Amino acid sequence: MHALFCLLVAAILANGLYFWLQKSQVIPSSTYLDYRHAVELAANDPGMEQPKLILDGFYVVPKEWILTKLLKDIFIIVFGIASILYLRHSKPIISTALVLPALLGLSITAAFLQSLYLYGPLVTIAGLRPIAYLVAGMLGAWAIRRRSMELLCHYLVAALIIELIFALYEYRYGIPLFSTARLANRINGTFSFPASLGIFAVTVCVFAFTFSSVNKLLLLSLAIAFVYLTGSATALVILAALLAMWAAHSAPDRWKMAVRLTSYGMIAVMLLALPKMVARYDILNSLWGRIEPATDYIEHRPSYVQVLFGKGLGIGSNIVNSAIKQSEAV
Question: Residue 212: what pLDDT?
């Protein structure tokens, strides 16, 4: 278990390490500039005849980055294998709770066969990659024990402290890529975007509150530091919700309802004041950006088969978009 969690921390740190080294000017940043001005990944509708794709790899990044990106997938593969070996002698439990995973598995199988028939094996394999994370999570239910959760929290907090060291250096010496009206350099550490790091920090805080004996003041301090340095509105809202739940849980019984109502009111006010709080005055536009694809999808009135099974695995993934771009350039 210790070895597995060490690999997890290494994967977290290594996944975007090369990006961080260039963003923080530790190594020459020519590749970083290529990243900023990368080719547009918006592809034509891949609903075409079976494409002949030329693929450089599964990662739409410069070749120097592939090794550090690969460690994340190695962790998922090792975790999946370890889970299968652990579960192979377990007696299967038949339960109504398995209905939803079974339906999901049926949908994925249908999409797999559809994609294999229409687009060939390369596109289908590309589509299996993100599903591997879901499968690993489902296989890993065996690890949900109090002791393993405590151990996981300690490793994640250690990763968070290392990220904070990276973040402080990046905040001082990093090349500004993300910014707000108040924060000239939103940090992202070894994550792709500042919001990812902010949400990770608050999530670790939630886990450690629940399963670990790590000092809560230390956890809150780490979470608040990351929420500020990343300028993430999502992380700020999650942190406020966490504090509200913690306050309601800690309050005496006669005060619980009053604390809950007060918390709801404060969160509502915070949501209205969010653009000013994070100094990102277009922040509410990002909410519409998440709703708009769904409304567009509905307006196009896809068939019921497409609603249930989509267009097949791999369609719209970075690897397929990149491959289509390359095939168009040939």
Answer: 84
Greatest distance between any 2 Cα atoms in the chain: 72
The token pair at 64 is 């120097």
| pTM as predicted | 0.72
For position 44, what pLDDT does the model report? 45
More confident residue, 158 or 328: 158
Contacts of 157 (CB under 8 A, 6+ apart): 204, 208, 212, 214, 219, 222
Q: Shortest CA distance to 13 belongs to which of 164, 220, 175?
A: 164
Q: Please provide residue 55's backbone torsions phi and psi, each rounded to the nearest 5 degrees.
A: -110, 130
Which region holds residue 329: left if phi is over 0, alpha if psi is between -120 and 50, else beta? Answer: alpha
Question: What span, in angstroms and rounded, lies between the C-alpha atoms of 213 and 72?
Answer: 28
3-class SS of residue 138: helix
Is pLDDT at 38 greater than 80 in this prediction?
no
Q: Give 120-150 pLDDT, tens digit per residue.
A: 777 787 778 778 878 887 777 777 788 888 8
- Number of neighbouring beta carbons within 10 Å of residue 294: 9
Helix, strand, coil content of the chain in percent (nearest 5): 70, 0, 30
Contact predicate 320/126, CB 8 Å: yes
Which among 59, 49, 33, 20 is positioned nearest to 317, based on CA atoms? 59
Using DSSP, state whether 182 is helix, strand or coil: coil
